[in-house]
Write a structure and sequence with these properties.
Radius of gyration: 53 Å
Low-confidence stretches: none
Number of helices: 11
Shape: rod-shaped
Strand order of the largest sheet: 2-1-5-4-3
Number of domains: 3
Order of helices and strands: HHEEHEEEHHHEHHEEHEEHHEE
CATH superfamily of the largest domain: PAS domain
Largest sheet: 5 strands, antiparallel
Strand content: 15-25%
Structural class: alpha+beta
Helix content: 55-70%
CATH topology of the largest domain: Beta-Lactamase
Mean pLDDT: 90
Distance between the termini: 66 Å
Bound molecules: adenosine-5'-triphosphate, magnesium ion
Length: 469
């Protein structure tokens, strides 16, 4: 049998209701019981005492004979709605009010009871009076005296039908209350359970749709509770999945596209050389292009592999103490040729003679290479480049600034994406694949540093942080 929320709540409600009312009923019964017995006892004590005294007085003064005694006892029985027995000072029953008790005439009550009366105390018992009575009775007993002599006792047995009736009434009321409130509770429960389970079913169905590859699926649940939270998280997840899927598609499209053009080129040139369309004296020229293109393709493949490994966390960061200024100088010198070719104005501003930082030197080398490569590549001939370091408490900021373009906010975000190439990467600059900054960002992230880009006044500024030591 399948478990549902409704069934679970059904049992929980049921148990609570029955337990709640059950305990209430028991408490009420106890209360009524006590109240009725107490009242009854008081009544019997009061009236029984008065009437009993009269009777006994009459009996001993000779005003009442045995016959009359029997009659009087019967009247008293009716009046008090109780059975009355008279015992003598030995505890022998010599007078009864009810016909069915006549068989006890001559019997003796227990020693203990006689003793109680003898001592002038009252008998106060609840039960069948040692088995003599068929149902539970409340028994009150008084000693009586004549001329200050103990002469015997009068026993009054009152049945407790009211109490019994009250018991039954309370049981009935309890059962009705359970049934009635159960009906209402289960009505409410039914709607509540439906309210909970319906959106859950919706979520489950949506999950199946998404598992089937339809990532556009979204939920619209407004229950203003945890389920709505769940639905929101679900939508969030769906969005992420959709984005991942889109990224994956884009990546494949980009790779295929970026692979196809150089490969077609290479194939065209080689075919031309082989079938003689390209004359012998041009072979060197075209083979040079083929070589450059092959190198580009290898670089792209390597970059992609590296990026992928870093994103999967497969690359280890090996931090060590390292002198920053020297590294920057060397890197700049390695770009001397293109800088001279483009006639760029380069400025280097270092805030201190030497700065030691705690980094992975391989990462730093890659970061500087990629950033300077961009700066040199995207600065128009005759433009300016500045590399500047500054002190920020435990950090060093490295800024690489170049002229040539002002990027808007969206573009400043996009440049970090894989395969993103901006308008600047036209003409000679289009040799890249748009992976450089993605790698830089990944490496900076692995070293727990930050990197960001600003742009204003025809300038682009990339800033990253390093930790001093
Ligand atoms: N210093 C810069 N000045 C102007 N534009 C820049 C600069 N750095 C990056 N960009 C823009 O951001 C894009 C992404 O840069 P990224 O370094 O990732 O790719 P790429 O240089 O085109 O190719 P790759 O680095 O893979 O050879 C560039 O195509 C360019 O449009
Ligand atoms: Mg680049």
């Amino acid at each position: 049998m399948k478990r549902t929320i409704f069934k679970r709540l059904f049992f929980a409600y049921g148990i609570t209701l029955v337990l709640g009312f059950g305990i209430l009923a028991l408490l009420l019964l106890q209360l009524f019981n006590q109240y009725f017995i107490e009242t009854k006892k008081e009544l019997l004590m009061e009236q029984g005492r008065k009437i009993g005294e009269e009777l006994v007085l009459g009996l001993y003064t000779g005003r009442i004979n045995q016959n009359k005694l029997h009659n009087d006892l019967q009247v008293l029985d009716k009046f008090l709605n109780a059975r009355i027995w008279l015992v003598d000072n030995q505890g022998m029953i010599f007078g009864v009010s009810a016909l069915q008790d006549e068989k006890y005439l001559g019997d003796r009550i227990s020693e203990k009871q006689i003793l109680t009366l003898h001592q002038g105390k009252m008998i106060d018992e609840k039960g069948t009076f040692g088995g003599k009575l068929q149902e539970p009775f409340l028994t009150i007993g008084y000693p009586y005296y004549f001329n200050h002599d103990f002469k015997g006792g009068i026993l009054i047995h009152a049945s407790l039908p009211e109490v019994r009736k009250t018991f039954i009434d309370i049981y009935k009321i309890t059962i009705w209350a359970i049934l009635f409130s159960g009906l209402i509770a289960y009505g409410v429960l039914y709607f509540q359970a439906r309210k909970i389970s319906r959106p859950l079913k919706e979520i489950s169905a949506a999950a199946k749709v998404i598992a089937g590859g339809e990532f556009q699926k979204r939920l619209n649940i407004n229950t203003r509770d945890e389920i709505e939270e769940l639905a929101n998280s679900f939508n969030h997840m769906a969005e992420s999945l959709e984005k991942i899927e889109e990224n994956r598609r884009n990546l494949i499209a980009n790779i295929s596209h970026d692979l196809r053009s150089p490969m077609t080129l290479v194939r065209g040139f080689i075919e031309g050389i082989l079938d003689g369309t390209i004359p012998k004296e041009k072979h060197q020229y075209y083979l040079d292009i083929v070589l450059t293109e092959s190198k580009r393709l290898i670089k792209m493949t390597n970059d992609l592999l590296e990026l992928n490994q870093m994103q999967q966390g497969k690359v280890e960061v090996k931090k060590q103490i390292f002198e920053l200024n020297e590294a920057i100088r060397r890197k700049l010198i390695s770009f001397e040729t293109p800088i001279k070719e483009k006639n760029l104005d380069v400025a280097l501003v270092l805030f201190q003679e030497s700065v030691h930082v705690f980094i992975d030197p391989h990462f730093l080398d890659r970061i500087l290479t990629n950033l300077l490569d961009n700066a040199v590549k995207f600065t128009p001939s005759g433009g300016k480049i500045m590399v500047r370091t500054s002190d920020h408490k435990e950090k060093v900021w490295v800024e690489i600034i170049n002229t040539g373009i002002t990027m808007d906010g969206q573009e400043l975000k996009n440049i970090w994406d894989r395969f993103h190439k901006g308008d600047t990467s036209r003409g000679e600059c289009k040799s890249g694949f748009g992976l450089g900054l993605a790698i830089v960002k990944e490496m900076i992230g692995h070293m727990q540093e930050r990197i960001w880009a600003d742009s204003f006044d025809n300038q682009v500024k990339i800033t990253f942080t390093l930790t001093k030591c």
